[in-house]
């Protein structure tokens, strides 16, 4: 990264940290012998994350015959990776403190992120040219969900300049990252990747955050994942699903050309993503 970017980001005071439970959870999930009891013991150390997981498992999407009242059966019902994604998302997004002068529509931003996570799975499973790509659904989902976390850094620590960049994107119909470079000399992709490294997040996720607007620059082993997540971001924007602060003009024609879809098929895909996003229990958990 450019020296002036490092200097600017390193100057941030009171930078939030992820709860220790996230690192401990990531370590535990690398053990193929880990069980639900061990995962529960880790998560129970963080009441806020525990509450969010219980909220999801008792949502209409997962609720069984009886309400789940304790963490261990909740983890069994949801699955380890789903629990990890909920915990990670809740921890990252909790750093986005309420701000009456918010540059972003907070609920719109959450909906954009949730839809992008779902879109990554839909694209990987629906587009013939991605048929050879074997990426776990939970990886696609969390990468799509957190691809724009750099905007949280800008919203919290460079609010006025970020607001100006959003206004430029809106007035001129240009990509937000271009407007950010014009105003600040850096964009949310760089800022997000910097924070993800600080938090020791997965290299695949860091690559998605950094290069989702320019997949050709990503490390080869992550390039398919980055391309899918970058495309999911554009599909969600084209469908008007949530609002991530990017007001670039209609991208549908270039999307249709890139993935060899006709307009009707793209509309159907967007409708599918919208339907699944509307049913996501994360909407309630994140306050979207």
TrEMBL record:
Q: Supply the PROSITE patterns for this chain.
A: HDOD
Keywords, A to Z?
A: Transferase
Pfam families documented for this protein: HDOD
Secreted: is it a keyword of this entry? no
Q: Where is the HDOD domain?
A: 15-215
Lineage: superkingdom:
Bacteria
Protein name per Swiss-Prot or TrEMBL: Putative nucleotidyltransferase with HDIG domain
| Species of provenance | Desulfosalsimonas propionicica
Q: What is the lineage of its organism?
A: Bacteria, Pseudomonadati, Thermodesulfobacteriota, Desulfobacteria, Desulfobacterales
């Amino acid at each position: 990264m450019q020296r002036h970017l490092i200097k600017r980001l390193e100057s941030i005071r009171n930078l939030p940290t992820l709860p220790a439970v996230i690192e401990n959870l990531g370590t535990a999930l690398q053990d193929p012998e880990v069980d639900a009891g061990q995962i529960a013991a880790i998560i129970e150390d963080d009441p806020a994350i525990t509450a969010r997981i219980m909220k999801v498992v008792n949502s209409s999407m997962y609720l069984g015959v009886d309400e789940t009242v304790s963490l261990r059966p909740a983890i069994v019902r949801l699955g380890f990776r789903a629990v990890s994604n909920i915990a990670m998302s809740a921890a990252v997004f909790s750093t986005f403190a309420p701000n009456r002068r918010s540059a972003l529509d907070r609920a719109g931003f959450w909906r954009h992120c949730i839809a992008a996570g779902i879109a990554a799975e839909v694209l990987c499973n629906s587009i013939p040219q991605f048929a050879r790509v074997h990426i776990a659904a939970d990886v696609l989902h969390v990468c799509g969900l957190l691809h724009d976390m750099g905007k949280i850094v800008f919203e919290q620590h460079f609010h006025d300049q970020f607001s100006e960049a959003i206004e430029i994107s809106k007035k001129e119909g240009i990509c937000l990252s271009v407007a950010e470079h014009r105003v600040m000399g850096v964009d949310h992709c760089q800022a997000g990747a910097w924070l993800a490294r600080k938090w020791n997040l997965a290299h695949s996720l860091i690559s998605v955050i950094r290069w989702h607007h320019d997949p050709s620059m990503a490390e080869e082993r992550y390039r398919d994942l980055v391309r899918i997540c970058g495309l999911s971001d554009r599909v969600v924007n084209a469908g008007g699903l949530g609002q991530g602060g990017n007001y670039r003009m209609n991208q549908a024609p270039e999307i249709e050309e890139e993935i060899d879809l006709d307009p009707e098929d793209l509309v159907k895909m967007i409708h599918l993503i919208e339907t699944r996003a509307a049913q996501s229990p994360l909407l309630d958990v994140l306050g979207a």
